[in-house]
Amino acid sequence: MIVVGVDGSRAGMEAVCWAAREAALRGVPLRIANAIPAWACSTTQQGPYADVAAWMRDGAAAVLSAAAERARAEAPGVQVDTAILAGDPRPALIEAAVDADLLVVGNHGLGGFRGLLLGSVAYGVASHAPCDVVVVREVPAAPRPEIVVGIDASPACGKVLDFAFAEAALHGTGLRVVHAYRALEAGGGFAPLPDDFDEEKAEVRMVREAVAGRRELYPDVKVVEEVVRGHPVDVLRQASAGAELLVIGSQGRRGFTGLILGSVCQAMLHHATGPMAIVRTPSSTG
After folding, report:
1. Please, which of 40, 156, 170, 200 could form a disulfide with 56 given CB 3.0 to 4.6 Å?
2. Is the domain of 59 the same as that of 110?
3. Which Pfam families match (predicted)?
4. What is the pLDDT of residue 284?
5. CA distance 239 to 247
6. What is the residue range of 232's domain?
7. Cα 216 from Cα 221, distance rounded (Å)
């Protein structure tokens, strides 16, 4: 099942469309959810706030009805249901996604401030959801038929690659595997590097080894390997511009215990130009 959160915003409707198409490709049902304050769900009797509560419930029902109609138009064969959730949308959506394969949200809701690139709901669910998350920005009118995945040398990158290869096969697109690295520096308490050490060759070899077995599992996916010396955020932003989807792990090899999202993941949440999938991976030090 795929769960998508809506609130009546344009970004929320973009998320519904993306989620409906994804549900069709995966052959799974779609649940569209909208959260309102808990008291509005429980206040049904006559009283000073009963009319306000009813107005909120009616508004949520209208938002869900419009979203469901759009989802069915986008993917006619998908089973769609709707749910009004009680409480703050962040914990409510996280709880609703406990048994889900994927949670989808727009990057910004109705309560966002102009100039902010990411809403609090999107950041909250990306940080705490029990499943993989896709944050949808406005999808390019004619996206490049390619999925971009950012990897590093952490053990968790295998899970990220599995997700990316599966998505490329589902969408019938190519896959660009991007690895950015920064030059190793001598000293710092580490043993000196051998004189004949070629850092670029070592990084290329790491990527090839990570991808090799998955090429055999997905022979129809055209793979491009890209190893670039530079900052991961700059490299990924450039590589993923115009692509159908960017895939990244929630934590990288430099993850610190206590941090919910890795620094590269956090930065790309703010700066990715299209839909971005966050694959749930544990911190390497956790």
Report:
1. 40
2. yes
3. Usp
4. 39
5. 12
6. 144-278
7. 10
